[in-house]
Amino acid sequence: MRRLLPHLVAALLLSCAPTSENAPPEPGSRPETMPEQTSAPAVPETTVRAGASPAYGYTHGEPSGNRVVEGVGDLPGSEPLDVRLEGEPLWIVGAPFGEDTAWVVVLADGRVRGLRIEGESGEIERLSVEPGRIIPGAPPALEATGDGLRLLSTPGSSSLTHPIPAASGLLGVSENGRLFAEPGEAPPVRPLPDARLVESQSGRIAVFSGPTRRYKHGVLGDGLEAKSITVLKPGREGYEIADRVRPESGGVFEGIAPLWFVSGGEELLAVTESAAGVGSRVAVYEPGGALFAAGPFIGEAMKWRHVLAAGPFAPGGEMEIAAVRTPHLSPIVEFYRLDRAAGRLKVSATLAGYTSHRIGARNLDTALAGDFDGQSGWELLLPDTSYTRLGAIRRAQNGAGMAWTLTLGGELSTNLASVTDARGRLYVAAGREDGVLRIWGREGEARDSK
């Protein structure tokens, strides 16, 4: 989990939904209120000091937008820890908290719950979180400091996304569809209303911009897609526009964020690029705007690919990009190898039966990548088509296969969240529709908090 320099973060309620360049966006949430349950955990709520340096947690894994996890786990060998909640969870974020892990769950009605899991014993402690309630459906970003747990927000920010820590404050999307900086001023950028701002290792920030309805697909929560990626760089007085990236096909970028990754020492952006009549392809762009490499279009209109993660998936540890082709129809997990000389992305392996997105949902974060079992290389972890199991997909010389599965015990209702603790051990959490948070990674016998 990436750590940044301390700074003051306003932790106020998220504001109302933003407007777009062309028309108001559709509502971005499932504000289904869950009743209080008598089986909710009777755990005392406290505020615990965890150390001086902030740690951050995002629904999309790393600040780069790459859904990867640092550290090493033993998920298939661990016993899951179940925590009963007061309602259906929609979002989870986590962060290291001293020697322990902290988790924040946002329920369907906007209530926010914080938990600390003690690293050795697995004891559960309820933690206070600021604010204690947000607009239903709003995605969270977590800051864990010595003063406790806060969700990053500021008055006037979009309820379809969250700001990020940047320089000495926050950078985010406002409710009026502009980029904002607090303190200071942001460059003139019109992002998608639900755009996630993602940061590279060198400190450049990329955001989908130029909302348009010219690509009429609308499977990600509204009818808006991006005409460009705006790349920002740190300047003397905040951030400046460095470059704009536009689809080489003349189409759109279909998603809520690009994904930064490093190949051959070069920072690159992976995206889903869609065009009329041919559907989607996985494409890689240089932050200066040039197309670096691209895979084939699906070849059929309104067929989407979901770019998930870039990492050393290949049997020899080579970099590959993982995506799901047509997650709403007959989903197929795809791994792409970068052919730098030819400027192409080649499909190196596929596997059917696993998916990553429900049609119409703004949750694009139901997959993670990393070394989840400490055995042989990386796995891609994502749900099967029933959303009741998580499958670990591992590359092999002859393709890709399922290495092992995790049983959810119910139907998935959240993103997948991860935390790597101070010892380098990783944990993964998922929420269920029946109001249970399940966490894997701790050694010992199964526990069920009541």
In short:
Helices cover 0% and strands 44% of the residues.
- Give the percentage of residues in beta strands: 35-45%
Rounded to an integer, what's the Rg over CA atoms? 20 Å
Biggest sheet overview: 5 strands, mixed
Mean pLDDT: 89
CATH architecture tag: 7 Propeller
Structural class by helix and strand composition: mainly beta
- The strand line-up of the biggest sheet is 1-8-7-6-5
The CATH topology name reads Methylamine Dehydrogenase, Chain H
CATH class category: Mainly Beta
User: Which stretches are low in confidence, meaning pLDDT under 50 for 5 or more residues running?
Assistant: 1-44, 46-51, 445-450
CATH superfamily membership:
YVTN repeat-like/Quinoprotein amine dehydrogenase
Query: Helical stretch count?
Result: 0
Strand tally, please? 35
Q: What would the principal axes of the Cα set say about the shape? A: globular
Distance between the termini: 29 Å
Helix content: under 10%
Q: How many domains, as an integer?
A: 1
